[in-house]
Amino acid sequence: MNENIQGKVIVITGASSGLGEAAARLLAAQGARVALGARRQDRIQAQARELTAAGGKAIAVTTDVTDRTQVQRLVDAAVETFGRVDVMINNAGLMPQSLLERLRIDEWDRTIDVNLKGMLYGIAAALPYMQRQKSGHFINVSSVAGHKVGPGTAVYAATKFGVRALSEGLRQEVKPYNIRTTIISPGAVATELPDSVSDPDAGARVRKFYAEQAIPADSFARAVAFAISQPDDVDINEILFRPTRQEV
Ligand SMILES: NC(=O)c1ccc[n+]([C@@H]2O[C@H](COP(=O)([O-])OP(=O)(O)OC[C@H]3O[C@@H](n4cnc5c(N)ncnc54)[C@H](OP(=O)(O)O)[C@@H]3O)[C@@H](O)[C@H]2O)c1
């Protein structure tokens, strides 16, 4: 159990796999009450049952973050069940990669809808509750690609640079409400994320890179727990971490 995590109500989008799932498990083990959101209902329901059976408190709410009413329903369900929302982790994301000249315009739209607009919908759903509570914490997931851009990563990087810009703007605006904001930018972490690269050339490159470099998803969960567990007057604004062996 962790003193400043225990009892907190934490909403996590993209909780059905990878980073979101790992964060939910660690936070629930440290005494948080978690609300799990993702589209794959079977996965989040199974996880909620497992966490509850282990003595934790968890609910699962099927959520597509591109639909703002569904994101609102997720946060409302957390408040109805647990009475408040202390932390909103905007984690759901995709990483399609391809050269711009391939004009995969539908993928560009989808990446922006999930990675950027999905995060904004998370802010819209939780911010009014946090303002009323005069406390809260947003954790927004960016990436090393939110700090660096390369060929094939322009659209993904644009969304992840955007996550950082939005988070910094949010940080400055929510001072009167005692709300903390944290950007977490992981390097290569072993998850299902490379599966979202549909371009065959980029996909082969990304899968090879992840097979050689990626570290376990617990690394992310520990960064989340570090930020949340700080005393209330300490706001960890930005965490950038990579596998020790990762160069880019
Ligand atoms: N792994 C890395 O190396 C890495 C590095 C930097 C940043 N990140 C970021 O970390 C975040 C999590 O990714 P991950 O690595 O854990 O990949 P992942 O295993 O593929 O997980 C992605 C999560 O996002 C959810 N998701 C995708 N589209 C969604 C939608 N429309 N509505 C709701 N949920 C949606 C997925 O759930 P459903 O499919 O069930 O909806 C899944 O739970 C992403 O924002 C990613 O950009 C990851």
Can you walk through the features of this model?
The protein is of the alpha/beta class and 248 residues long. The protein is 46% helix and 16% strand. It has seven helices and seven strands; from the N terminus they run E-H-E-H-E-H-E-H-E-H-E-H-H-E. It has a seven-stranded parallel sheet, sandwiched between helices. Strand 5 (136-141), helix 5 (154-173) and strand 6 form a beta-alpha-beta unit. The protein is globular and about 50 Å long. The termini are far apart. The model has no long low-confidence stretch (mean pLDDT 97). Bound molecules: NADP nicotinamide-adenine-dinucleotide phosphate (NAP). NADP nicotinamide-adenine-dinucleotide phosphate binds next to helix 1.
List the topology elements.
Elements: E1 9-13, H1 18-29, E2 33-38, H2 41-53, E3 57-62, H3 68-82, E4 87-90, H4 105-133, E5 136-141, H5 154-173, E6 179-186, H6 200-213, H7 218-229, E7 238-241
Parallel strand pairs: 1-2, 1-4, 2-3, 4-5, 5-6, 6-7
Bound molecules: NADP nicotinamide-adenine-dinucleotide phosphate.
NADP nicotinamide-adenine-dinucleotide phosphate (NAP) binds at residues 13-20, 38-40, 63-66, 91-95, 114, 141, 143, 186, 188-189, 191-193.
Question: Summarize this, please?
Answer:
The chain is built from seven helices and seven strands, in the order βαβαβαβαβαβααβ. With 248 residues, the chain is of the alpha/beta class.
